[in-house]
Design brief:
Length: 613
């Protein structure tokens, strides 16, 4: 079971009034009609209630006074007509109220997506940020959809408060203590319900943890890329067992919550009995003492019944509003999560193709959060303009971490990363990213057409440049032979006519993307891992020509594939242990030479005597 000891001390950053003001501010800025409709619908609903309240007592009073039949019929028709008109107008606005409310929810959802895609890279790996994201998404797209349903609550709050005030005015002819009783029970009930409902927020981390686990298992069970593994290794029962055990924990959590919430319901029942029972007893005593006529009795009987409904409505809707505002607070906490990097407040720096760029790491060490030791230790490295640098090493040596520091995805724990002698921390980090084209190990292939996958755009595509990039990576013939050529959809997840490229073809597609961006610095992190050694060598040799004078950094496990580079560095246990050209490192006879010899023997055996070296 997830630990919850810390949850008890966690409080929402924003209270109900602050979260309500936040949503109202969004509406005032972009969708004022939403607020207008809240007020109009509340007024119409109260109007219908008043018509329903007065129709029966008024008719009964006319009967008591023995008015003419035509006057009685006219009164009935007037009430009926007014009820129909007000009801029709209310129905019209109810039908049309949702458009602005949906637009606001989608606006908040868009803000969440923007935060996800633009936040500082370390935030994407931060468990606290992920938990806040989970809460935010539940608040926008989950069952509650607080950012949309809160407008219903605002309407109901306005309606109940207005009805409460009007009915109090109508009850002023009765004893004051009835009003005091209703107000007192309302206040007591609100604070009890408010206290009980905080339990849900204080345990949201635990709920999000269960939800995240079940969603993860469900997503992987549905992922067609894992279909082969699930069948070969008979993973179905194993996945079901994990899912069921997590579900049982989640159900136990729900039961704990229900035990807490039931006390709120019990308090509501007791308060309702106090409000209704005592008031009804008093009213009946007035009737028995002939202090009320039949029509007055019916009117006050309806008022007291309606008054208690308004009181219960205020209690219920404020409790609902409080819970929704807790969800909205979670949205704001995610959107306002602090950034580690400078963005718009940083110094702008646009890439210039005619300008040389030198990257330097000075005394750089890096440790991942909560790790026990550094992944990189005192790295000093200069990457000169136009240089082709190969970064080699075994798995876990720190190669990818080094590249992420160069690209600005991380800041060093110790030391600094410089571009042309200036610390990159001062720059707008998004501008800094524009200086790099990259192919990473975990590249992204989108369910769109080939053209947009390469260009990362659906407009202003330069066809000659697109053809050139596809040809350079060896994909042009493949694309030309497809019926829809560049318009062919990639993957079958969204489009029935989509095609699934092989692993090697996907990597070529990503290489074409990197070329099309035409940034001054190119980073290739194991971009050809799905290719065989000979195909990799051929592609690298070709890539050596097409990179032109741009600075290039290559990461590979295969030592022979990067022998064309100007310089090679070998990383082991987070440190640069060897540096030089391929020939100089072989001549040195150190660890690089040993690893090269091992791999050469392997490739000769694997390819029947053809060495990639």
């Amino acid at each position: 079971m997830a630990k919850t000891s810390n949850n008890k001390t966690q409080k929402p950053k924003y209270n109900m009034w602050q979260s309500s003001a936040y949503m109202i501010a969004i509406a005032l800025k972009s969708y004022k009609s939403v607020l207008v409709l809240c007020i109009v619908l509340a007024a119409l609903s109260v109007g219908l209630s008043l018509l329903g309240l007065f129709i029966a007592p008024t008719i009964l009073q006319l009967v008591e006074y023995a008015v003419p039949l035509d006057q009685l019929i006219l009164t009935i028709l007037l009430f009926t007509g007014a009820t129909l008109v007000v009801g029709a107008v209310e129905s019209y606005f109810v039908v049309n109220k949702k458009w602005g409310r949906i637009a606001i929810r989608f606006k908040v959802l868009s803000d969440i997506h923007d935060k996800i895609s633009t936040t500082s890279y370390p935030n994407t790996e931060n468990q606290d940020v992920r938990k806040k994201l989970e809460k935010a998404q539940i608040s926008v797209s989950g069952p509650s959809q607080a950012t949309e349903t809160i407008w219903n609550t605002f309407t109901d709050v306005l309606k109940n408060i207005a009805g409460f005030v009007i009915y109090i005015a109508l009850l002023t002819t009765l004893e004051l203590w009835i009003i005091v009783l209703a107000v007192a029970t309302t206040v007591i009930g609100f604070f009890i319900s408010n206290y009980v409902n905080r339990w849900g927020y204080l345990h949201r981390d635990e709920e999000a943890d269960y939800s995240r686990r079940m969603n993860y298992i469900g997503e992987n069970a549905r992922d067609y890329t894992l279909a082969k593994d699930i069948r070969i290794f008979d993973m179905k029962e194993w996945l079901n067992d994990i899912y069921d055990s997590t579900l049982r924990l989640y159900q136990a959590f729900i039961k704990r919550g229900e035990k807490v919430y039931i006390w709120g319901n019990i308090a509501d029942v007791i308060l309702s009995f106090a409000r209704n029972g005592i008031a009804y007893a008093y009213l009946i005593r007035l009737v028995l003492s002939d202090a009320l006529s039949a029509s007055q009795f019916l009117l006050y009987f309806s008022i007291i019944g309606g008054f208690t409904a308004w009181v219960s409505g205020i209690l219920s809707q404020f409790s609902t509003l409080h819970k929704q505002c807790l969800d909205i607070s979670a949205v704001r906490e995610f959107l306002e999560y602090p950034e580690q990097f400078a963005f718009e407040d940083g110094q702008p720096i646009e890439p210039d193709a005619s300008k040389p760029y030198k990257i330097e790491l000075k005394n750089v060490s890096f440790r991942y959060p909560e790790a026990e030791k550094d992944t990189l230790i005192n790295i000093n490295l200069e990457i000169n303009p136009g240089e082709k640098l190969a970064v080699l090493g075994l798995n876990g040596a720190g190669k990818t971490t080094l590249v992420k520091l160069i690209c600005g995805f991380y800041d060093p724990t110790v030391g600094e990363v410089l571009m042309n002698g200036e610390n990159i921390k001062q720059y707008n980090r998004r501008d800094y990213y524009k200086h790099f084209s990259a192919v990473f190990q975990d590249f992204s292939v989108l369910a769109t057409n080939i053209s947009e996958n390469i260009t990362q755009s659906d407009e202003n595509i330069i066809q000659e440049k697109l053809d050139d990039c596809a040809e350079k990576v060896g994909l042009l013939n493949k694309i030309d032979n497809l019926p829809q050529k560049y318009e062919t959809h990639v993957t079958k997840r969204v489009f029935e006519d989509g095609i699934d490229f092989s692993g090697g073809e996907l990597q070529r597609l990503m290489l074409a993307r990197a070329l099309y961006k035409d940034a001054p610095i190119i980073i290739l992190d194991e971009p050809t891992a799905a290719l065989d050694p000979i195909a990799e060598s051929e592609l690298y040799n070709k890539y050596n020509d097409l990179t032109g004078g741009r600075t290039s950094v290559y990461i590979s496990h295969r030592l022979a594939s990067t022998r064309f580079c100007d310089r090679i560095i070998l990383i082991d246990e987070g440190q640069i242990i060897e540096e030089g050209t391929h020939d100089s490192l072989i001549e040195k006879g150190g660890k690089y030479a040993q690893l090269f010899d091992i791999q050469s023997h392997y490739y000769r055996a694997d390819t029947g005597g053809v060495s990639n070296g």
